[in-house]
Every structure is written in structure tokens, then in C-alpha cells.
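[Q] Does anyone have a clean C-alpha cell version of this?
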Amino acid sequence: MSVVFITGANGFIARALATRLRARGDTVTGVDLRADEAAGVVAGDIGEEGSWQDAAAGADLVIHTAAVVSNAVGLDEQWRVNVAGTRHALDAAVRGKAGRFLQFSSIRAFSDLGFPDGVSEDHPVRTDGNPYVDTKIAGEQVALQAHAEGRIAVTIVRPGDVYGPGSRPWTVLPVELIRTNRFLLPAGGHGIFSPVYIDDLIDGVLLAAGKPEAAGQIFTLTGGAGVPCREFFGHYYRMLGKRGPVVLPTPLAVAVAGIMGTAIRLVSGPTEVNATSMLYFTRTGTYSIQKARRLLGYQPRVDLTEGMARTGRWLRDQGLVPA
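[A] Here you go.
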């Protein structure tokens, strides 16, 4: 039995982690912007030092999921949370005498500008001017520096495109946009998506956190296969009883997304409908999970058909798609 402290504890991935950890007998606490006393979550802003750091005292493992995950938030705020926040979480883990710090990064550390098909963890990361990409890379550097200095053992995971019950970026938001006819794909829908079902991701994270040989390592965790974007998002269209996806040539899709995003911002504020999101859907490469298979014994078990069947049941239960 271990004590685990999770940053961003009210988030989608963090809640799934906490459920699994408690099921195996671990004690789970954490921090988020809003407290949840029943779940052992204290209120705190990881972008600032504060009393929330004291709540990590006595934890065996600190899992750092908190981040700004957006293509619609500027560099200053993303740096404050994704980079400075990582340092603050590391400081809390070190002061609390945790044995391991597991940092959530992203496959986007390889950049949105292109990378070899089947890219592996030894391929250089690449900044590209996107605040999310650049701050996730900088956050990795902060964590790896702490490991190199011997302050704490660090493991970094780079999740793929995480979908499933509760996922806002790749389940709830696309369904909302498709339902309101505001979703489209560039590159004729032929860009490659790299999905990982939430249960498989949690399997990989717990393996990475628990194996001594994972200290100092970076692991890519996806479902093991890339699929065309039109195939992945086509599942949501069928759940909604719509024909699609709507696909356009990339220049036209980027232009339409810019116009549509401006209109949405004027009415309801920041939106993920923008040129950066469109370009993300033009990726042509996939991500290798051979290192995670070899060193962790990671084996994704939920393929896209089964994952979408489970996701569809949840969406129907939530009233987000027709029964």
C-alpha cells in the first residue's frame, strides 16, 4: 500500500488514476484549483508556491498531471503552469520525501511540424512556437534536471490522444462541435490520429510509476496504432446520426477554422477551433511504443472498436448522443 499525491486531481486522467489506485488499496490525495475534501484534494494553484505543497508530505509517489492543455491559451499562462508549476510540484515532492515523481508530458513534444513515422523516445524534441508544445518540452527539462541532480527519481510519460468516458479534448468537445456543425478536418481527413483509450493509458502510467528501471526514462504511451482522423472522428458522427466528417483541403480548412474561431470567441470566449488545431490534424507520422512494451511490459488491450463502443455507452448515459 502506497500514498500517492496527484496534481490536477480533479481532471479526467487524474480521476481515472485515483480510482485505479484506490482499488488496489493505495491512499490518494492531491491538489487542484478547487478542493474536494471527500477525495482528499486541497485547493491550490500549482503555478504559484503555496501551502498546497505541504499536502504532498509523506507521499511515496507524486504524479504530476496538472497542466494547461489548450491551443487557445497564451505563452505566459502556459509557462506559468506547465513549466513553473512543474518546478513547484517537484519541490513539493522533494520536501515531502517522495521516492518517485511521474511527470505527464505529451507526444506533442515531438512538435506538430513533422517527425519520422514510428518516432521513438530517442528522437530529438522540437520547439515550434506553439505555447503548449514549447512549455511541455520545457517542463520535461525541469523534471529531468531534478533527476540528473539526484533530487528525486523522475519518470516522464508522453500520452497519445487520450479518449474515452470523461475525456474533454477527444470525446466531449468533438461531439459538441459535431452536433453543432462546427467540426471539420483538413488534409481531406487523411491526417493520422494516435488514440489511446483511458484504461490503457492508466495501465501504462502505473507500470511506469512502479518499476525501478523506469526511473530517469521517458515513455510514449499510445494505443499502438495510428488511424486516419476521418476514421477516428467518424465514430462520433455515427453516434450522432450524422454524415461526415466534413473534410477540406488544408489551406481552406485553416481559413474556415480561423473565421469560425473568431465568431465563437466573440460570443463565448476562447475556443479550440483555430488554425493550430487544424494543423494538428495534418500529422502523417505515428509514435512507437516499443520502449514501453520492452521495459514496462505495456500492452494496450482496448482497440478502437471496443474503445468507441465503451465511449458511446458513456456518451448515451450522459445524454450527449441519442439513445
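[Q] Thanks! Anything notable?
[A] Residues 56 and 96 are 6 Å apart (CA to CA).
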